[in-house]
Amino acid sequence: MVTLEDLKRELSERDYRMLTGGDDAVAERALTKARIWVVSQFKRCGTTPDFEDEIVREAVLKRALYELYSYAENEKVARDKKEDARELLEGVLGDCVGGEEGGESYRPVAVSVKEGSLSPLAQEFAERD
Q: Fewer Cβ atoms within 10 A, N terminus or C terminus of the chain?
């Protein structure tokens, strides 16, 4: 599991102080929010995270950095960190990792159909194959 010390190692002392105001509680909250986000992405994909997995750990760190930069209102860097975290999880989970702008959602692309239950139009297309 990613610790406060792991997060601190990702930043210079100066940047850590700037982002947290020197308050470790701010960084702990960023880590908690990052873990919650990772769990939610895994649940969305129907599985649970292994927080000891190297990629999952890196995704938690990137998401925690996003939370810190966002807290400090440095939105450009925050967006980059958020995207990094999402891309890491996409590498593990695939397309079911969701965006946060509200337009994206996961939908299955295949269905099972009983034989003989196709509509006439669907039957026509099936016969062409």
A: C
pLDDT digits (tens, 9 = 90+) for 28-63: 999 999 999 999 999 999 999 999 999 999 999 999
Question: Residue 49: helix, strand or coil by DSSP?
Answer: coil
What is the DSSP annotation of 77-89?
HHHHHHHHHHHHH
CB–CB of 21/50 below 8 Å?
Answer: no
pTM over 0.85: no
Identify the residue whose tokens are 């930069």. 69
> What does each C-alpha distance from 103 to 24, 27, 96, 98, 100 come to in angstroms?
35, 30, 13, 9, 8
| Cα–Cα dist 43/41, whole Å | 5
What distance lies between CA 23 and its chain's CA centroid? 26
- In angstroms, rounded to a whole number, what is the distance separating the alpha carbons of residues 36 and 125? 45
Structure tokens of 73? 């209102």
